[in-house]
Amino acid sequence: MLTSLAGKSVLVTGGSSGIGLGIARVFAQQGAKVAISARSADRVETVAAALRNEGLDVHGYVADVADAAAVRSMVDAVAAAQGGIDVLCANAGIFPSGSIDELTPEDWDLVLNTNAKGSFLAVQACLPYLRKAEYGRVILTSSITGPITGFPGWSHYGASKAAQLGFMRTAAIELARDNITINAVLPGNVLTEGLIGMGQAYCDSMAASVPLKCLGTVEDIAYAALFFASREAGYVTGQALSIDGGQVLPESLAALG
Question: What keywords appear on the UniProt entry (predicted)?
Fold first, then answer.
């Protein structure tokens, strides 16, 4: 049994859908005060209101994670409303597809700025508050794509997710002096709106490549993030945890029988 997170202040960027929404719901169910951020004001407030209707303490904030001033303003507002920030879940990310032949410099910058720079900006803005916390926690949402695997059309996405881990390893050393840990969850194929939007054939092919023969859920990722956020995980930092049903293990589909 992990120490309760009741009363802890948690910020989840990209918390209005997919894995971020799953993380926000699970943390709030554990009694945390949760702020979710997204670029769309209508979307983030609609989602936050729905979670409050479930009896959860969740409020929405608007920010583009690639905009340093917007991130800092949002973080300050969250800290003022929730009495500080104990846990940052830097989850915001995008995954548009495009082959190397087709990608423009602007396409590349959009993904790297959102996924990699956005994580850095969120951590940097939260640092003054994490330093004041009893124990600060940062959890990055990376991916198996980039750090471990590759997939056609996602060179920019893979680069951004690998960049997060490079940032994390040095950040772990720098933040340790302030009793702040930083770790990353690496989801495999998780059943979210984005994955469903890629079509049933894609979902079926991905499930077939997983030894557990099913896609992951947002809760699978959220409970791993919950462990990293716990007091009990205080001696774990700079680590990347794959949550993929064993997807990266087989040498080929033939290995799955």
Answer: NAD, Oxidoreductase
Overall pTM surpassing 0.70 (yes/no): yes
Burial of 236 (0-12, 13-18, 19+ CB in 10 A): middle
Task: Classify residue 76 as left (phi > 0), alpha (psi -120 to 50) or beta.
Answer: alpha
* Per annotation, catalytic residue among 61, 129, 135, 157: 157
157 is catalytic: yes
* Extents of the domains making up the chain: 9-236
**Which CATH architecture does the domain made up of 9-236 adopt?**
3-Layer(aba) Sandwich (3.40)
Strand partners, 62: 38
Per-residue pLDDT of the chain (257 residues; tens, 9 = 90+): 789 999 999 999 999 999 999 999 999 999 999 999 999 999 999 999 999 999 999 999 999 999 999 999 999 999 999 999 999 999 999 999 999 999 999 999 999 999 999 999 999 999 999 999 999 999 999 999 999 999 999 999 999 999 999 999 999 999 999 999 999 999 999 988 777 887 888 888 888 889 999 999 999 999 999 999 999 999 999 999 999 999 999 987 778 87
The two tokens of residue 232 are 């009990």
